[in-house]
Amino acid sequence: MRVLVVEDERDMADAIVRGLRRKGMAVDVAYDGLQGHEMAYVTRYDVVVLDRDLPGMHGDEICAALVESGTLTRVLMLTASSSVDDKVEGLELGADDYLAKPFDFKELVARVQALGRRATPVAPPVLTAGDLVLDQSRRVATRSGAPLELTNKEFCVLEELLKAKGGVVSSEELLDRVWDANTDPFTTTVRVTINTLRKKLGDPPLVETVVGAGYRIAEPVVAS
């Protein structure tokens, strides 16, 4: 899941970013409204965690612009304005959810995850390919019943490949969906992650390389 945090209180913004990354999300951050508005249009995020009272460009303007663009990005307004009227106003602007400061981080994570599921085409909570099973909600993966010890990035790459249902996913798409804006687009990190994922998945091989296109999950051939 790709998330953008737009928050001018740097300590809070950085704490949210660290916490969401620990949950396996790819998270970028903007510390003012103009930067946040630009980033939200350059990259297609699943969720934007958006402070309302921002310097440069007000959060309300960013929210309204995102809604008008027709993007699938979901907006969670995170603000100190906690009255009922403030919440109603935020939701009427097109925000998908509204969380007042101070907040419980567990609640923030749950709300971001719920919005992320609504930002992409609906996928079943459990993804499978042959004897490979990936449970998105519990964030566990098994093969032939044995648990797989995957890093957050390996889990997310596998998740994206399984969601494609046998379709090819390019390295660029994986970079966009799994890594954040700090990742060098010319890095070999996708190839390295794919290689370590292949080793952990074992035999028969599941991840195929489609030369010049990307990667896909192939149903394993079972010997008769």
UniProtKB/TrEMBL annotation:
Could you tell me which residue ranges the OmpR/PhoB-type domain spans?
124-219
Q: Name the keywords, alphabetized.
A: DNA-binding, Phosphoprotein
Show which residues constitute the signal peptide: none
- The residue ranges marked as DNA-binding region are 124-219
Among SMART domains, the record links this protein to: REC (SM00448), Trans_reg_C (SM00862)
PTM sites of type 4-aspartylphosphate:
D51
Response regulatory domain location? 2-116
Name under which the protein is recorded: Response regulator transcription factor
